[in-house]
Amino acid sequence: MFGSLIDYWYYTGDSTYNEVVSEALLFQTGSENDFMPPNQTKSEGNDDQAFWGMAAMSAAEVKFPNPPDDQPQWLALAQAVFNSQAARWDNTSCAGGLKWQIFTFNTGYNYKNSISNGAFFNMASRLGYYTQNQTYFEWADRMWDWVEGVGLMSTSYAVFDGTDDTLNCTQQNHIQWTYNAGVYLLGASVMWNQTNGTTQALWETRIRGIITASNVFFQNNVMYEVACEPQGNCDTDQQSFKAYLSRWMAASTKVAPFVSDLVKSYLQTSAQAAAKSCSGGSDGVTCGTKWTAQAWDSTYGVGQQMNALEVIQGLLIDQVSGPVSNTTGGISVGNPSAGTGGDTNPGAPTGQITTGDKAGAGILTAVILVALLGGAWYVDVDTEDFLD
């Protein structure tokens, strides 16, 4: 959610919500400044922690106002999440990868899912881009190879939900979610940007493959959550997944320009449909779940607001600059050993790639804050203005 509000500032320049966004992010950092706060640590998974880390990474990339000097900085927070997760690389089953859950007592501990591993891949590629530390890129390559090798991504680039490590990851759960495709798409686009020759050509093949496989998430170019929308049984988290695919499709165009022609029609048509869905409730601007309905479907929630916000504001992507790095104007201070307790942990990107453990925080934690956006700002906009 806070990533959506960072994007809102990035696209519009409206700083109205910046203070509350910064306060909310910093409140969840925890004593080790790695987004493992006491109020959430025992119940969260690698994916939860990673969403906070990716929000911090976005803040660094778009030069979101820095926290006070006595507070952890955006880049260092993202590095802390990465380091704590690199230390959890699990060679005890499936020849590697990250488990969904961190603690043995949580349901899903024996599940290695695509979003946890994809978010790590996403962070690794973006940290490599920002810092030019090659070890991040090595981790990104390692993770991609593992995901493909274990069958979480098909030969046609469909991304499946996860796999049971008690079966040594020999069977996959073939459910597909929008955000899984998106998280790998942006990471792959960053890797394309940072490579050349045959390696870059390989990343382009992968990018095109993910986008082609993502056709399953569109009806007449309108995005929908194929695994739950038709049955009307999307849970709270799943209600927000379209926001992430929308965000990462748009963001990918800034680092891999050829992506623009491949996703533009998806985003434009989806944005128009999303705007039509934001016509419900007593305020007349409440957003629904099913954009394919071309009208409000009588559902509402934080996820629905996020989805519409991201796909519509993403149409402004050509009006903003791309992500910065340490050498192209970045202003966020990093710490390569963040998240390691100050020691040179094997997981810290200082050379060799190895293992260890720690914990995370939730995707939709402070849901009340999204009401600040309401939904009204974009529903009043003539969508056609963005489609030229």
From TrEMBL:
Does the keyword Membrane belong to this entry?
yes
> Which terms are listed as keywords in the entry?
Glycoprotein, Glycosidase, Hydrolase, Membrane, Signal
- For this protein, the Enzyme Commission number is 3.2.1.101
Q: Region (Disordered) spans which residues?
A: 330-353
Task: From the UniProt record, give one GO term of the biological process aspect.
Answer: carbohydrate catabolic process
Q: What Gene Ontology terms describe what this protein does at the molecular function level?
A: mannan endo-1,6-alpha-mannosidase activity
Query: Which InterPro entries does its entry note?
Result: 6-hairpin_glycosidase_sf, Glyco_hydro_76, Mannan-1_6-alpha_mannosidase
**What top-level branch of life does the organism fall under?**
Eukaryota
- Keyword flag Transcription regulation: no
Q: Which family does it belong to?
A: Belongs to the glycosyl hydrolase 76 family.
Q: Report the protein name in the record.
A: mannan endo-1,6-alpha-mannosidase
Which organism is this entry from?
Answer: Oleoguttula mirabilis
Lineage of the native species? Eukaryota, Fungi, Dikarya, Ascomycota, Pezizomycotina
